[in-house]
Amino acid sequence: MTDTPPPNLVWETALDWLLLIQQNPDDPELNRRLNDWRASAPEHDAAWRKAQKVWQLSGAALSLPNPPA
After folding, report:
1. Residue limits of the FecR N-terminal domain (predicted)?
2. How many Cα atoms sit within 13 Å of 49 on the Cβ side?
3. Would you list the DSSP string of 36-48?
4. 5-33 pLDDT tens trace
């Protein structure tokens, strides 16, 4: 048996990190802690990359014009 956290916990943690970094992008200690978390397990890095992609896509979707009524 491994000590791997459940996938939902990893995803939720990645989202928490994303929000923290969005609020404090220039905080070197926060960025160091994020990088440590990402490096601690492959699924952490994968969840982080997925969270970033979702963030980028949601921003792009919000910039689309509204469809005609």
Report:
1. 13-53
2. 8
3. HHHHT-HHHHHHH
4. 667 999 999 999 999 999 999 999 999 99
Q: CB 44: neighbour CB atoms within 10 A?
A: 20
Q: Which two tokens stand for residue 18?
A: 């994303």
pLDDT (tens digit per residue) in 42-56: 999 999 999 999 988
Q: Is residue 69 predicted with pLDDT exceeding 80?
A: no
Domain ranges of the chain: 7-63
Residues 14, 15, 20, 26: is their CA dihedral positive or negative? Answer: positive
Q: Return the amino acid letter for 60.
A: A
Query: Could you give the CA distance from residue 51 to residue 45 in angstroms, rounded to a whole number?
Result: 10
